[in-house]
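Case study.
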Amino acid sequence: MWGIFTRFLKDKRAMTIGFCLGALGFIEMYVALFPSIQKQAAELNKMMATFPKEFMKAFGLDSTKVLFSSLESYMSTEYFSFFWPILVTIMAISFAGAICVGEIEKKTIEVTLAQPVSRVKILLSRYLAGALAVTFFTIVSSYGILILAILQKIDYSLVNYSTVALMGSLCGLAIFTIATFFSVLFSERGRAIIVTTGILLLMYALNIISGLKDSLVNLQYLSFFHYFSAPQVFGENKIVDWSIPVFVGTILVFLLAAIIRFQKRDIAV
Amino acid sequence: MSKKVIQIKNLKKYFGKVKAVDGISFDIEKGEIFGFLGPNGAGKTTTIRCIMNFLYPTSGSISIFGKDAVHDSVFLKSKIGYLPGNVSLNNNWTGKSHIEYIESIRGKSQSARELAEKFDLDLSKKFKNLSSGNKQKLGLVLALMSDPEIVIMDEPTVGLDPLLQNLIYEVLEDLRKKGATILISSHNLSEVERLCNRVGIIKTGKMVTVEPVAKLEGKKLHRVEVRFSDKYQKEEFKVKGVDTIEEITGGFIFTASGDLNPLMQKIAKHKITDIEITHANLEEIFLKFYAKEQK
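After joint prediction, the assembly is written out as follows.
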């Protein structure tokens, strides 16, 4: 099991480092811009106040609160509400694809299946390695901001970084686990990617739609982007109600479903 | 104690309405090389994948060393070396990485490096940079590096040059001498003739026959080439046991199974200028089993 775990990590090492460096590049760009943005915060807030209330709500922004008042508030909007979800989704789908469906397409899975190790161990070894990489990426994304803030002598609130690292990791792991399930469900990588991406886009859309009309507000509970609301989690250091049970529950349910499916399915390359 | 190492009983594997394997049964005894013959789509690879527990049988049973191939697959795989058809390994790994990966699961191998040396295989090259022959060699090293008691190979020599084919034959012969039990699927009839003790022929998911190679070659089919100096009609030779009649200048080539006497009696009624009776080779036997399907 350890051999499969370390091999998976080794195979994904370059990609993980690439994602982390890419994220740090974005973060540095945003953090470097923050002092000048902060100076214009009053003008920006005035401009934002002219936007429709529903529009602001749709993107998780509270028009009654001052935007960009802190680095965390600024980065929650600029990075954790937009770039980070895209990066973590790409990473999660890519790594999950390598667990099963990618190996079926590349016809390499038989080498591992022919070894004296159970399918459950094969799946869990790769899943845990991928989960570690996704978590590492989220931690780098979170504390990377902190390190750059310290280097550039920008004020910060330490506890917010721990909160966003925790909630970001749980959200990333939930996405990764769903992607893992579809990786073991299908035999074509394209289908696994389309279905996982479709579900996440639907969640993103539901979160926006729920903010447009009061009658649709309950749709937000079907979206991860409600539970990982970056302005609240990072900007205000708040954990959204039910977010931990929803993410942990999603991880457990989809992981169990993936194990059962991988154990029972025919694997022909 | 039974000498039967692999026992397959009424194995069926359906994919929806497609009956890939439809009730085949055969045994493989300890120390023998069993050849599994059939064209593409006959069910050879599906059967092998069921033995390896990559596919779950629709019904029937596979027993290896008396243990169930589904429930005891982890234990059984520690006894099996498997070479898939058209070896596909990780393009970006070197041969050494592949060996280390298998070692991380099965434990340190004493023979992996020896095998690589014997095959003249450069383990430092990435899989994608290896020739097809060297890819097959690496697949063989991985299959044999844990000194398996059972070796299962799906078309091990397909696409290889004769030198490498011979090398694989030598390896298989060595394994047999050491007491390993070997199942190979193949299209290559001459290699089956050369290597195998017994052969099973599978056709559209059903086992047509399981015979010792010698029996199959020697008893089942004769090739009779005869030329006459008098007049003859093709119809008069359509007697019991004659499977095919091919017209040649001044006579015929018959393939006949079973009792030759009815045909010989018909031939004896004519003035014969030349006659040659030989045992049919495996290729002709193979074609005979598929004649109906081809029609």
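Observations recorded in class. Residues 162-177 of chain B form the longest helix (16 residues). The mean pLDDT of chain B is 89. We will return to this complex in the next lecture.
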